[in-house]
Amino acid sequence: MSKAISIKIPDPLRHLIVVCGDQLDIKSAVFEGFDPAQDAILMTEAHEEATYVWQHKRRLVFFFAAMRGFRDALIERGFSVLYNQIDAPEVPASLADGLVKAVEKHAPKEIILARPGDYRVLTALEDAARQANTPMRLIEETHFLIALADFNSFREGRKRFIMEDFYRFVRRETGYLMKDGKPLGGEWNYDKENRATFKKDGPGLLPRREAFPPSDRTQTVIDLVAARFPDAPGSLDNFDEPLTREDALRALDDFIRNRLPEFGTYQDAMWEGDSTLYHSRLSAVMNVKLLNPREVCDAAIAAYEKGHAPLNAVEGFVRQIIGWREFTRGIYWAEMPEYAQMNALDAKNDVPDFFWTGDTDMACLRDAIGKLLKTGYAHHIERLMLMGLYLQLYGADPYKTHEWHMSLYLDAIDWVSLPNMLGMSQHADDGIVGTKPYCASGAYISRMGHYCSDCRYNPKLSVGEEACPFSVLYWDFLARHEKKFSQNRRMAFQMKNLQRKDKSDINEIRNHAKTLIKMQGSVSDLNNS
Questions:
Q1: Whether the Cβ atoms of residue 72 and residue 83 lie closer than 8 Å to each other
Q2: Whole-angstrom Cα distance, residue 176 to residue 17?
Q3: CB-based burial label for 117 (10 Å; 0-12, 13-18, 19+)
C-alpha cells in the first residue's frame, strides 16, 4: 500500500477504535459489534514510539511490518482503517497526537481502547481523549487467561505471594495438565529434569527454525528503517521473522513438531553462536497478540497427549506462559506507576558501553550480546544469568537496564520487560517478583555453557588479571549488600561463604571491582537520541 492510504471513514462516526502496535489480534474484544458503516480503526506508526528508547533496527521493522500486515488484513475484511504511516507527510509525532488529530477531523462519539501493554501509552491516550473532549471506553484484554481483577483478588491478603502459588492457581482455573484436581504426573513442575547442559562436543545437529523471508511489504519497511534510522543498534541482515497471523501459526507448528520434545531438558543450556537451540521464539508474536496463549498451550498439551513430547518439556513450556507471563502482567498493573521507580539495592551505574556493541573480552557476553544484535532475541537464561546477572552485579540502574532491554529485544513490551528486568533480574523491587536476587559467580556460567574454555578469564579466580569479572563482581555484590542479604534466609548459604573469606581478600576483590566498573563507562545518553 502507498503512504497515503485512501479508506473512506464513516461520517458521522460512532466509534473510533485505537489499535496499538502490540494489539494485533483480529479477535480482540474491541472489534465486537464493529460496524463498517459507523466505526473506524486508528493505527499510528509514531516517531515517539520508535525513539523514546534507542531501538534495535530489527525491532523497528518487526513492529512496523507487523502493524502494516494487520492493517491490510483488517481492510481485506472490510474494516475502515485510518492508518498513519511514519514516512507519510505530516505524520503525527505520537500516538496521543494521532488520536487528537483523528478526533478533530472525524468527531467520533466515543473512543474505544483495549488496555495497552504500557502504562505510559495508556495515560497518554487517556489524556489525549480528555484534550479532545471525547469519552473513551477502556476495554480489558481478553488475550490473557487471568483477568486483572482475578489476579488482584487472588493476591489480596496473602502473606506470601510467589509465582509458584499463582501458577498452581492458574493450572486449577484452566485445567491445563490437570486430572481429577491433581497435576499430571504427580508433580507441579519438573525443574529437576530441565537443567541439562550440552557436553563439550555441543548440542550436535539442531533442528532449524523455520524462516520467513521478507514479503514486498516487509522489504519496504526494511529499506525505510535502514534509511530513516541508520544509527540504530543491531543488524537487519537476513531478517526472517514471522509477521502475520498465518506466519505466527506456522512458527508455532514448527516449534511443536521440531523443538518442543527436547525443550524441557535443555531449556537452561547455553551454547555459542546459536540463538534458538530448542526454544520456541514465539514470545514476540505472542506479545503483539498474533498468537493467543490458549492456542499455544493447547498445541503443546496436544503434543503430550499424542506422545510426541514428554511431560517435563510440555510442563516447562506451559509454565512460562500461564505462570511467568500472566504473573508479570498482573504485577505490572498492580504496582504501576510506582514500580518503575523502585531501586531497592540503590544501583546507580549506567549500562556499560559494551552492552550496545558486544565488544568485550568476556566470551559469554560477547557471544550473547552479539547474537542479540543480530537477531533481537536471547533465551531466558542468557537474559537472566548472563546479561541481566552482569548488570545486577555491576550495579546498573534498574530502570536503565529495563530501557536497554526495551531497546534491543523484539518481544519487549513494558508490562513484561519491567517486572522481568527491574524485578526478577535486578531485584530492585525488594522481592515482589522474586524472593531473592538471582546472583551467581562465573562458576554457574562455566557449568551451563562452554564459554569459559575459550575465554581469557578464569571463572575460578576473583583476583588478578585472569579473574573472571563475574566472579569479581559477585563477591563485591555480596559484600556491598551484606547487611541486607543477611536478613534473607534464601541467601544464607551465599552469605556464609562470604563470611568465610579472609577480609584482606574481600578488600582486594572490592578494589578490583571498582576498577572494572570505572573502566566500562556508559553510552546511556544514546538511549534518548
A1: no
A2: 33
A3: buried
Helix and strand numbers, DSSP H then E, in the chain? 23, 7
Intervals of CATH 1.25.40.80 along the chain: 148-207+259-335
Q: Which one is the CATH code of 148-207+259-335: 1.25.40.80, 2.40.10.270, 1.10.3210.10, 3.30.565.10?
A: 1.25.40.80
Q: What average pLDDT score do residues 446-453 get?
A: 92
Question: Maximum CA pair distance of the chain?
Answer: 78
pLDDT computed for residue 524 by the predictor: 37
Domain at 15-139, CATH homologous superfamily: HUPs (3.40.50.620)
What is the architecture, at CATH level 2, of domain 353-528?
Orthogonal Bundle (1.10)
Is the separation of the CB atoms in 449 and 269 below 8 Å? yes
Reported as a single tens digit per residue, the pLDDT across 37-66 is 999 999 999 999 999 999 999 999 999 999
Peptide bond into 92 cis (omega under 30): no
Q: H or E element: which one contains 39? A: strand 39-44
DSSP, collapsed to helix, strand or coil, labels residue 477 as helix
- What burial class does residue 386 get, using C-beta atoms within 10 Å of its C-beta: 0-12 exposed, 13-18 middle, 19+ buried? buried
Which of 51, 61, 26 has the alpha carbon at shortest distance from 41?
26
Contact between residue 385 and residue 420 where contact means Cβ atoms under 8 Å apart: no
**Omega before residue 437 within 30° of 0, cis:** no
CATH 3.40.50.620 spans which residues of the chain? 15-139
Q: How far apart are CA 64 and CA 45, in angstroms?
A: 7
**Radius of gyration (C-alpha) of the chain in whole angstroms:** 24
Do 276 and 286 touch, CB atoms closer than 8 A?
A: no
Q: What is the pLDDT of residues 426-442, one digit of tens each?
A: 999 999 999 999 999 99
Residue 3 has pLDDT above 60, yes or no: no
The predicted pLDDT at position 525 comes to 34
Checking if the pLDDT of 319 tops 80, the result is yes
Residue ranges, comma separated, of all CATH 1.10.579.10 domains in the chain are 353-528
**Residue that the C-alpha cell 480482540 belongs to:** 28
- DSSP single-letter state for residue 234: S
With beta carbons less than 8 A apart as the criterion, state whether 354 and 520 touch: yes
Dihedral class, residue 107 (left if φ above 0, else alpha if ψ from -120 to 50, else beta):
left
Q: Name which of 373, 372, 387, 407 is nearest 527 in CA terms.
A: 407
pTM of the model: 0.94
CB 84 within 8 A of CB 98: yes
Per the prediction, the chain carries an average pLDDT of 94
Distance (Å, whole) CA 12 – CA 483: 65
**pLDDT given for residue 521 in this prediction:** 63
